[in-house]
Structures are given as structure tokens and as C-alpha cells.
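Running co-folding for beta-D-fucopyranose.
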Amino acid sequence: MTYPQFPPNFLFGTATSAFQIEGSPAADGKGKSIWDVFTHTPGKVRNGENADIACDTYLNSERDLTLMAELGLNAYRFSVSWSRVLPKGRGQVNQRGLDYYRRLVDLLLPRNITPFITLFHWDTPQALQELCGGFAGRDMANYFADYSEVVVKALGDRAKNWITLNEPWEHSAFGHLLGDHAPGHHNPWEYFRAAHYQLLGHGLALERIRAASPDAHVGLTLSLTPIYPSTSNPKDLAAAKVANQFFNDFFLDAVFKGKYPNPLWKQIGIARPKVGADDMKIISRPIDFLGVNYYSREFARAAWYVPFLRAWVDEVQVNDREQIINGQQYTNFGREVYAPAFYETLIHLKNEYGNPRMYITENGASFTDVLENGKVHDPLRIAFLESYMEAAAQAIRDGVNLHGYFIWSLMDNFEWREGFSKRFGLVYVDHATQERIIKDSGYWVAEMIRTQGCVK
Ligand code: FCB
């Protein structure tokens, strides 16, 4: 078998986030986050599940580190829970919360695993939600910069790679527009404010992080979902363009070009957030790298009835089982497995955004995994990883400035509103016993890493 081959010093990691794995929501002085509140609100999460235990990582991080070492990974992306560090979101620092992350980094370094630390992965402190509406409030951008500085001051001597935000589109859209993520609001005005203020928070944090740790390497992570027109009708082409701007270019253009894209910006009219005189300058301060989360492409068509956008992105089919539709494999989250669009996205970033230094900070798939006789056979996940990693390797050969690949996820974890029903891990987790079993895909990754540089 031949495996995708990457350049020397390439980073092979997995990604997780605090809320999805840590559990222990009140340990050592932690404050509540909006996700603690949301998951305890009846009807919000599938099967009434919550993340009070999740993967129990807060109480036992070493177990997961042993797994990473076994898989041969040399990088790990995790997030810091803001409300562990600042229980009220600002003000009083909770040293025990900070110490947890220092210990975690101290466990990674001797194993030669490079930490990539996300500062905001959606778990807004509840106190700040109440104070200023979370990221829908402008003050939140400053609170985020203050919090970032606290974390980087404490960890910057040992951790060098920082990701300010994870997927600002998802947090704004699911949390503030569609309402199926915390804080559960349905408000287009809030959507655009949350998007803009997260970006502003990113820009303000960037400067504070650099001041606190001059050799820090700082970026942000965007989810990129390329939108293709559903037909060749010019109206659908125009709809795909606006949809692309809504999902992707809004964030990319702000960070790399210092402006929001048209026609989207014009079309949203009265829903536009207030942009301060210096905001775009702050948002577009140079970053050291772009984190790319990539899951799938989507298709759009013209839809006069959709406010502002006038475009509709065809419904993702969450049907709980993997299936083949028109010859294409879909995951059990209803996502199409189609690596060529991933390759095109990377080439697009090279051509349109100046080929920034990049890491794939998330890519992965959920399939129905079954534990049988102590083994989990997941050939669909192996095929997924093989095709996506090969697409990335090809993009590098074609000049894309990509330096690492973090698979979502190390282990099965709490998948937000889907609870534990979706498994993305390379490692299977028995959520009743916390037992971990490396899946076939985990062994595939270990072998892929081991063979680097061996195939000429
Ligand atoms: C991404 C999130 C991550 C995880 C994966 C499946 O959008 O960043 O936390 O839920 O999807």
C-alpha cells in the first residue's frame, strides 16, 4: 500500500476542543459557559445528552496523550475553556484553570507533540453572554483580547502556536442565526454582528498575543465550504457567488484584504454591522498562518425568498447513515465525500489570497462505527482520509504553502447538538466506561506517518 507523502517536518496532528472532551464543568472553580447552559436546556441536544463527562479528559489527560504517542502524532490542537481561566469571562483569574493547561502542555512537549492552542472554540462564558450578548456585543472583542493575553502570558514560554478563533461562521450562524447551537438565537442582525465582532476580537487579540510572547506564531481557523452552482443557469451562478461570499469570502476578505465582499455587503443592507473607522485595519493585521477546517462542498441556487442572500444552499441531509447517492459516498452527517473540491479550495487560497502559510486544522468524517471483538473496522474513514490527504499532498506539490494536517478528531467526543451520536475519532470511545479502542483508521494514520520519507 502506498500512503500520501508529505514534505519533511510536516505536522501530523489531531484536533479536539475543550467543551467536547473535558467534562468536569464545575471543577477547580470553573465558571459556566453558554454550552453548559444550552446542553442543560431540555430539547436542545439529541437524546437529552450533555457534556458533563464527555471524554473525561480534564480528570485524565494522560490517557489521551498515550494514545497520541501510540499513533505517532507530532502535533495536537486543543482549545482552552475561557470560563476555566476567567470564571466570569473577565476580571479575576482562576489559577487552577490555567494550571490545567500548563500541565497539559508539559505532558505534550516531552512526547515531541507540538501544541496548537485555540483560544475560542464557541464556549463563551455565560457571564459575558449575560453582560453583553456574547460576541453579538462589541465589548466582547475587548474581553476576548484581555483573556487571550492572560492565557498567552501564562503559557507563552512553552507554547508557541496560537489560534484565536475557531470557525467564526459556524458560531455566528448556528448560535445566533439558526439557533441550534448555544446561545440559541435566531437573529440575522446578531449573525452579522457576531461575525464582525469575532473578527475584531481576533485582530485585537493578535496584537496582545504578540506583545505577550514575541516569538508566538498566531493565526485563526476558518471553516471553508466551497459553494458550487446547482445548475449552469446564470441566476444560480450569481447565487453561488453570494453564498460563497457569505460562507467563506466574508472572513477571508476581511482578514486578507481588509474589506467585506460585494455584492454580499450591498445586499445585506440594513443587517450590516456597524464597522468602526479602524476595524478593518485591525482585522487585517498580518497573521502567521491560516487554519483551514474543511468538511465538504455545497450547492446553491437562486432563491428570491431568502432574505438578504437571495440564495439557498441545498439542505444537508442528516439521515444518520452513510450512503451512496448518484455514485458519491456520503457520511452519516449527510456530507459528500469529494476530495477534488478540497484540492480546488487549497489552490484557490494560493491564487486568490497570496498563498498564506496554512495548516489543515480540521478534516475528518463521521461514520457508523461498531465495536466487534475489541476492534473497530472503519474502511470508509480510511478511504476518506486517504483521498483527502492525497489531495492535500498534491496541492503541496502544486505549490500550496501547507505545513500540517490535524484530523478531527483524536477520539469520539461530544458533537454539539448531535450529542454522542456522531463518531469522528481515530479512537473509539465507549462513553459508558471511557474505554478507548484504536480504530483501523487510527492504525492507518500511524502507518501513514511511519512511512513518510520511505517512498521515493
Ligand atoms: C467543526 C467543529 C468541531 C467539530 C467538527 C465535526 O465544525 O469545529 O468542533 O464539531 O465540526
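Result summary
The chain has one domain: 11-450.
The pocket of beta-D-fucopyranose is lined by residues 17, 20, 166-167, 170, 223, 293, 362, 408, 415-416, 424 (CB under 6 Å).
Job closed.
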